[in-house]
Amino acid sequence: MLCEHCHENEAKITYTVVEGNDVGQKHVCPSCFQEFLAKQFPSSQIPPMDIQPMIQELLSLFHGKNEGAEDDRSCPVCGRSLKEFRKTGMFGCDSCYDTFAEELKALLPRMQGAERHEGAMPEAFRKDREASQKEQALKERLEAAVAEERYEDAAILRDEIKAIKDERHG
Q: CB under 8 Å to 164, separation ≥6 — which residues?
């Protein structure tokens, strides 16, 4: 398939475009994708790169282990094999994440820099997460205040916890 932008090179990258209620996919070559990124994120310093070798490198992490035995495993729910995942880079269902958890543990830190997602999240989730963490910290302080028989402090902490719960759960 040819790049939808330049109509010259092979399209190797597919990305989704959402405009209002319309959702569409664009198929572009790596150089047009690089131009797209530069236009969409002008303030960020995105170094020129060929995406395909990076994807191949990430997928090659799966090829390092006892390949014959590993390739025979498949997801019990959708039937997707590790070999198919290596070839396409896509899982068939959510159970694949559990089935191939060991392989993902090796792959995710190289892809994201950490095993746990630390990136952007919707504002509502971020606020709820912060409120939950604050509530947990207050509960720990409340327990300590009660254990130390500081009942006035405990009452204040109890009221703060109640206010957070009311705000979170309406």
A: 131, 134, 135, 138
> How do residues 133-169 score in pLDDT, each as one tens digit?
999 999 999 999 999 999 999 999 999 999 988 887 7
Question: In the structure encoding, which two tokens stand for residue 10, read together?
Answer: 């092979």
For residue 60, what pLDDT band results from cuts at 50, 70 and 90? Answer: low
* pLDDT for the residue numbered 50: 60
Taking 50 as the threshold, does the pLDDT of residue 87 lie above it? yes
pLDDT at 44 over 80: no
Burial (CB < 10 A; 0-12, 13-18, 19+), residue 92, is middle
Task: Please tell me the distance from the alpha carbon of residue 29 to that of residue 40, in angstroms, as a whole number.
Answer: 16
Bridge partners (DSSP) listed for residue 10: 2
The 8-class DSSP code of residue 116 comes to S
**Which of helix, strand or coil describes residue 60?**
helix
Count of beta carbons in the 10 Å neighbourhood of residue 97: 11
pLDDT at 152: 95
Q: Rounded distance, CA 24 to CA 129, Å? A: 32
